Backbone:
């Protein structure tokens, strides 16, 4: 937790590693969940649905899920809607999302060639 120490919040941070399809938390635990470029790494659509359903399960009523990812966004939105989270908002223009995807994929391709 070097970043938490650097920011002076390490006593308020608890870092855990878990499978996003089976989160080790009780129902309605969190006010906010953040996922950044992670869910697309689940290759099967059913696994991505399970991850979104787990987010819904551990969110408190009225909680917010913020997801930044490079693909499958429509699937995520539909899974949230099917699980009683109909208030979906996408931010950023199509162009900005496309540029982010291209840069991300280019970086991944570069990393693999090392």
Residues:
């Amino acid at each position: 937790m070097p970043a938490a120490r650097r920011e002076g919040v390490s006593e308020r941070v608890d870092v855990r590693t878990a499978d996003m399809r089976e989160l080790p938390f009780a129902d309605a635990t969190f006010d906010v969940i953040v996922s950044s470029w992670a869910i697309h790494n689940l290759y099967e659509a059913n696994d991505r649905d399970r991850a979104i359903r787990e987010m819904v399960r551990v969110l408190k009523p009225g909680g917010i899920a913020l997801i930044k990812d490079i693909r499958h966004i429509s699937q995520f939105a539909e899974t949230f809607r099917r699980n009683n989270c109909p208030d979906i908002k996408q931010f950023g223009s199509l162009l900005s999302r496309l540029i982010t995807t291209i840069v991300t994929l280019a970086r991944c391709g570069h990393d693999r060639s090392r």
